[in-house]
């Protein structure tokens, strides 16, 4: 039997007692977790991630996992001898690329994550936007200024989509059955074609449609950093606009934060950018006063 006076046991108990108000606060609420392709490389972190979502489910929160797999799609395209190009962080997707993206995302990665969750003691159901007609995608339109004529020209990204409509009943049915939905960012268009959707965009749209309590974007930095490299812990949409204008945020962080702003303005309570390389970062964010990463919320949401 365990010794209740053992300091390690006491420390654990105190942590659980501290976490109790947060568990009560979020019981019955939904958390959407975006798990990116870069974070999947380390098996130990993958198993920690799976344990975290299983624990959330066990304490009465409904986790919904949306996954990426950009590097894995890139590796498979390379094997197949197909070249890949990105515009504004989006992979230009022709028919052959869409087929590979679906095979890697809906097939290999989706089932791998379902497997990790099963191994951690939970039950997961792996689907893509196609299943149960959950998501319909519309084609993404991008324009670019021609450097010579300065005229805006339409850039064709091929089969790159963004969610147009989402039927949340599919997700709710899986969650209500005690399972964790694991969603691949692939969706059909109204034209019946298969569209490749950026995983952050898919997660943000699902979090907004579900009115999620939190959208977690697990990435490879501690959160949003200022120019000195300090973590910015709490941001509003207006702050993000300033950070973009003064060049503090760049590259992949721009579309990521745009997704967060869109999600919190469209029904998700708050979004968090946090480090997927840190073991159990999500639990630290949820169950401690200090949190971890960067919280993004509108003026109406309290911390
Ligand atoms: N101000 C900033 N704070 C943190 N990261 C930033 C910032 N500006 C740009 N970045 C970049 O954004 C990257 C995260 O975006 P991205 O590479 O698209 O992530 P993921 O592949 O996890 O979706 C970081 O690795 C970092 O290089
Ligand atoms: C249109 C588009 O760019 N789709 C992404 C989908 C995967 C993804 O977003 O994966 P990460 O989150 O791991 O980057 C792609 O083809 O790479």
TrEMBL record:
Gene: argB
CDD domains with a match to the protein in the record: AAK_NAGK-C
Gene3D superfamilies assigned: Acetylglutamate kinase-like
Organism: Novosphingobium indicum
Site feature: Transition state stabilizer: 34, 256
Key words of the record: Amino-acid biosynthesis, Arginine biosynthesis, ATP-binding, Cytoplasm, Kinase, Nucleotide-binding, Transferase
Compartmental location: Cytoplasm
Function: Catalyzes the ATP-dependent phosphorylation of N-acetyl-L-glutamate.
Aspartate/glutamate/uridylate kinase domain sequence ranges: 30-273
Protein name stated in the entry: Acetylglutamate kinase
Stored HAMAP family: ArgB
Domain of life the protein comes from: Bacteria
Phylogenetic classification of the source organism: Bacteria, Pseudomonadati, Pseudomonadota, Alphaproteobacteria, Sphingomonadales
Family to which the UniProt record says this protein belongs: Belongs to the acetylglutamate kinase family. ArgB subfamily.
GO terms assigned for molecular function: kinase activity
EC numbers: 2.7.2.8
Residues that, per the record, bind substrate: 69-70, 91, 196
NCBIfam families: argB
Pathway annotation: Amino-acid biosynthesis; L-arginine biosynthesis; N(2)-acetyl-L-ornithine from L-glutamate: step 2/4
Signal peptide (residue range): none
Catalyzed reactions: N-acetyl-L-glutamate + ATP = N-acetyl-L-glutamyl 5-phosphate + ADP
């Amino acid at each position: 039997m365990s010794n209740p006076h053992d300091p390690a046991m006491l420390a654990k108990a105190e942590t659980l007692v501290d976490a109790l108000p947060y568990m009560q606060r979020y019981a019955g609420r939904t958390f959407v977790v975006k798990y990116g392709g870069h974070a999947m490389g380390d098996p130990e972190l993958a198993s920690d991630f799976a344990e975290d979502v299983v624990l959330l489910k066990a304490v009465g929160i409904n986790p919904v996992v949306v996954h990426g797999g950009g590097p894995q799609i890139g590796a498979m395209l390379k094997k197949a001898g197909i070249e890949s190009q990105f515009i504004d962080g989006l992979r230009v997707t022709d028919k052959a690329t869409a087929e590979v993206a679906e095979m890697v995302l809906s097939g290999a990665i989706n089932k791998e994550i379902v497997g990790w969750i099963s191994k951690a003691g939970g039950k997961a159901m792996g689907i893509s936007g196609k299943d149960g007609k959950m998501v319909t995608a519309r084609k993404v339109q991008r324009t670019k200024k021609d450097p010579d004529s300065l005229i805006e020209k339409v850039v064709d990204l091929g089969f790159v989509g963004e969610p147009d409509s989402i039927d949340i009943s599919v997700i709710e049915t899986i969650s209500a059955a005690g399972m964790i939905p694991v969603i691949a960012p692939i969706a059909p268009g109204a034209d019946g074609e298969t569209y490749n959707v950026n995983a952050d965009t898919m997660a943000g749209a699902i979090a907004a449609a579900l009115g999620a309590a939190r959208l977690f974007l697990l990435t490879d930095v501690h959160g949003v950093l200022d120019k000195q490299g300090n973590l910015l812990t709490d941001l509003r949409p207006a702050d993000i606009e300033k950070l973009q204008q003064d060049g503090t945020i760049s590259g992949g962080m721009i579309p990521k934060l745009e997704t967060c702003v869109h999600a919190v303005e469209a029904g998700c309570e708050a979004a968090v950018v946090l480090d997927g390389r840190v073991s159990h970062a999500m639990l630290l964010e949820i169950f401690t006063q200090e949190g971890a990463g960067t919280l993004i919320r509108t003026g109406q949401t309290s911390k």
